[in-house]
Design a protein that fits this description.
heterodimer; A: 247 residues; alpha/beta; 6-stranded mixed sheet; globular; B: mainly alpha; 8 helices
């Protein structure tokens, strides 16, 4: 990890509430270039809200978020769209477009960020490469409904990677998968991170996934950063709140 | 047994009306911006127009046939059987065909939009669209509302023609009127003031169906239960709006002396 470089993502003192439910309380974190940071927490602890704040799908009530040197609050829609092209997002539910084939799903992000000429020239090879990366070249003309849960996750990952993003955000990437497929997805995430040299923020409570993918883990408890350390150090901790996740 | 009166939240009702007004205002803002999704618009015209044509066509044919058959005995009683084509055509063109077509569209298109967009909302597909840099409102809402506004009048015009043909068959079940005489009588009684208001109101029917269907789906919450609720309420509200628009249209044509 290159600690001397400026963080890719800086989250400064953000707060977010839904009515009386205070989800994030004065939460701060930095994500360094090239690292795989895991945000660990119980269901409902605000992990998904945090990751959606980073991509501006949810606006925090207060605080500052800087992504790739851009303050999210200062961007207009066009600038935000340009920034989003550099950030891949893997949704918990995969969010593949039901009415489109795998090819159309993968080509969808290209229609905005590439010109017509670029699409005509490079879209086919980009789709082919993305599908080869996730080992599903044969599914190019299939509909999402024809795919298994693990295959859908891989296609969603291919779509998140197709614009060659600098940052990849994973929202519970192994939830709902069997242990073998979950492990395969975790290993695929590590391989993709190496290939694209991307920085990753992974939201998860799957300890196996965290063990395989993480360089660093932030434990989110009651909307605050409770612990910030490597997986191995946290595993050896005697703090009862941390032990709950490992025992 | 004590009758339980449902608790109607007035604030919630007014909030909903305010939200629909804001949603409609956003539609006009997005329409006025450049870079429209023409491909998706054409795709939606196909789904809304072509895929509803059979249902509208069959219903319009039966409507014309049944109205003619049921009107005949009354006219025969007054010795006015020869007015049957004229009376049926005015009823169909001015009122019955446009309203029934709009109600069919409210059921099929409104529920379809509510369910499709609702499902996309709860499965994060709309969020995925936003993250990919596409404006989901423009891609999903503007295209569908525009397509509904354009295709409902087209469907209604086709329903007019098919229902009149149904009327021709209905006239000839008990009587005998030649093809030429039937159409001569139909177009003899119909004029500009019958056709134009009827056509204009169908644009408003289509717009209302599109706005309500997309509003309900786009703002769907509470998982699969919410998707079902979006589809159902889209049909109910859109159908109600069709009648309200029809009532307003009748008043306007009356004031303008077009009745």
């Amino acid at each position: 990890m290159k600690k001397d470089l400026k963080p890719v993502i800086e989250v400064k003192n953000i707060n977010k509430s839904f009515g009386d439910n205070h989800v994030l309380r004065d939460f701060s974190m930095d994500v360094n270039p090239g690292e795989n940071l895991v945000i660990l927490g119980k269901s409902g602890s605000g992990k998904s809200v945090l990751i959606k704040c980073i991509i501006d799908l949810i606006r925090p009530d207060s605080g500052q978020i800087i992504v790739l040197n851009h303050d999210i609050n200062d961007l207009d829609q066009e600038e935000l769209d340009k920034l989003r092209a550099k950030v891949g997002f893997l949704f918990q539910s995969n969010a593949l477009y039901d009415s489109m084939t795998v090819r159309e799903n993968l080509e969808f992000p290209l229609r905005i960020h590439w010109t017509k000429e670029e699409r005509a020239k490079n879209a086919e090879s980009a789709v082919k490469e993305a599908l080869e990366d996730v080992g599903l070249s044969h599914t190019v003309n299939m509909m999402p409904s024809e795919l298994s849960g693990g295959m859908r996750k891989r296609i969603a990952l291919a779509r998140a990677l197709i614009l060659n993003p600098s940052v990849i955000l994973y929202d519970e990437p192994t939830t709902g998968l069997d242990p073998i497929t979950a492990r395969e997805i975790s290993e695929l995430m590590v391989n993709m991170q190496k290939k694209y040299n991307a920085t990753s923020v992974i939201i998860s409570h799957d300890m196996n996934c965290i063990r395989i993918t993480s360089n660093r883990v932030i434990m989110l408890i009651e909307g605050r950063s409770y612990a910030d350390d490597t997986y191995d150090n946290l595993r050896l901790s005697k703090d009862p709140k941390i032990r709950e996740f490992f025992d | 047994m004590k009758l339980k009166i449902p608790n109607i939240d007035k604030n919630q009702f007014l909030n909903e009306i305010g939200d629909i007004a804001r949603f409609t205002a956003r539609f006009f803002r997005e329409v006025s911006k450049p870079k429209q999704e023409y491909h998706e618009f054409v795709n939606q015209c196909y789904w809304i127009g072509y895929k509803t044509l059979t249902l509208v066509g069959v219903t319009a044919f039966i409507m014309g046939l049944v109205l003619t058959i049921q009107s005949r005995p009354t006219l025969v009683e007054f010795g006015a059987e020869s007015y049957l084509p004229s009376m049926v055509s005015v009823s169909l063109i001015r009122e019955i065909a446009p309203v029934i077509t709009a109600l069919i569209c409210a059921g099929k298109i409104g529920s379809g939009m509510g369910a499709e967009l609702g499902s996309m909302r709860v499965t994060e597909q709309i969020d995925a669209m936003e993250v990919s840099g596409t404006n989901p409102f423009k891609y999903l809402v503007v295209t569908r509302v525009m397509a509904a506004t354009l295709m409902v009048p087209v469907l209604s015009s086709l329903a007019n023609a098919i229902s009149l043909y149904g009327g021709y068959l209905g006239v000839n079940i008990r009587g005998q009127v030649s093809w030429h005489l039937y159409w001569f009588q139909v177009f003899g009684v119909l004029d500009f003031s019958d056709m134009l208001p009827s056509l204009i109101k169908t644009f408003f029917f289509g717009f209302a169906i599109g706005i309500i269907g997309t509003y309900k789906g786009y703002n769907s919450t509470k998982g699969t239960e919410g998707v079902g609720r979006s589809a159902t309420t889209a049909v109910i509200v859109a159908s109600l709006l069709v009648f309200i628009i029809d009532l307003i249209a009748v008043q306007i044509t009356d004031i303008l002396g077009l009745t």
